[in-house]
Every structure is written in structure tokens, then in C-alpha cells.
């Protein structure tokens, strides 16, 4: 058992090989850990509120996305801990996120009832998904990356075309 953060955890995720994992926390950080040794490899700092949603860009595993109650998503380098981009646009907390398998997009779902797709090469918002009447609390890409599903507190699930929204 690791004493990982000074405040409660919100989420955990392995990289594809299982050699390392990440933890998100109310302490506003995401930490990268070596699975075998339990050593903290890196602390990703910069969010101004709870880090709630976290993910590796598996199967590649060279990037981490963090979604926060500060309404932003950050894209980080696993190797250096550098923040590549801060994705801004949501008007409420980000509570879920996911990379597509191709590692070209990261999707964020928010309490503002929208999901947004971000290009991880240039940091730009590609598509905004609007149509839910309540918070989006889950989302997932299909394996080919051309569709995404969103689940909402409005009791519905929606299937979206990634290229057109």
C-alpha cells in the first residue's frame, strides 16, 4: 500500500504493459508510479482544482491526459512531465476523458452537458458534442476511432460521428 497523495484519490490507471500507473487526487496533482518498486516517478502539477479524470494514451503510453474540476484538460509527456497543452473551453468540471486508440484525439466530458474532442498534435478543439440535457459522466471511443459514445445524467446514451459531431 502506497501513501500516494496528501488528499483523497479520484482515479487510477495503468499503462498498457502495466509497468507504471497514474493516480489523480483532490490535491490537484496526477502522479506517475513504477508498479514494480512503488517509486513515485513524477508529479504532474498545474491544475487549480481536483484532478478527477486521468488516462494514458494506450497502446502507446507516452502521453497522459488529466481532466480537472478547474474546467481544463492537460496533456502531459510521460517521459519528461512536460505539459504539452492545456485544453480550455468547458464551462464546468471535467469528469471523464478518453484517448482514441489512434492517439490523435482526446475526448473530455463535462458537467456543462458537452463533450469536446481535442487534437493532441496542435491542441485545438476539433468537435463539440452538444445535445445532452444534463451532465456527461462517461464516454468512450470505438476501436476504429470514428465513433464515440457518451453517457449522461439525463438517462441517455448518444452515439456520435467523430468527424462531424
Automatic annotation (TrEMBL):
Keywords: Repeat, WD repeat. The keyword Transferase does not apply. WD repeats lie at residues 2-43, 44-86, 87-128, 129-165. SMART domains: WD40. Coiled coil: none annotated. One of its GO terms (cellular component) is transferase complex. InterPro entries: WD40/YVTN_repeat-like_dom_sf, WD40_PAC1, WD40_repeat_CS, WD40_repeat_dom_sf, WD40_rpt. This is Dynein assembly factor with WDR repeat domains 1-like.
Amino acid at each position: 500500500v502506497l501513501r500516494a497523495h496528501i488528499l483523497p484519490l479520484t482515479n487510477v490507471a495503468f499503462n498498457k504493459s502495466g509497468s507504471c500507473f497514474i493516480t489523480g487526487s483532490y490535491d490537484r496533482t496526477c502522479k506517475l508510479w513504477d508498479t514494480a518498486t512503488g517509486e513515485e516517478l513524477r508529479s504532474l502539477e498545474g491544475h487549480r482544482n481536483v484532478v478527477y479524470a486521468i488516462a494514458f494514451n494506450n497502446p502507446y503510453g507516452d502521453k497522459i491526459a488529466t481532466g480537472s474540476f478547474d474546467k481544463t484538460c492537460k496533456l502531459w509527456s510521460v517521459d519528461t512531465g512536460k505539459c504539452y497543452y492545456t485544453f480550455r473551453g468547458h464551462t464546468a468540471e471535467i469528469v471523464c476523458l478518453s484517448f482514441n486508440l489512434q492517439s490523435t484525439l482526446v475526448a473530455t466530458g463535462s458537467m456543462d452537458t458537452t463533450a469536446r474532442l481535442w487534437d493532441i498534435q496542435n491542441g485545438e478543439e476539433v468537435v463539440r458534442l452538444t445535445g445532452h440535457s444534463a451532465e456527461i459522466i462517461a464516454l468512450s471511443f470505438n476501436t476504429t476511432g470514428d465513433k464515440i459514445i457518451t453517457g449522461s445524467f439525463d438517462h441517455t446514451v448518444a452515439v456520435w460521428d467523430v468527424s462531424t459531431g
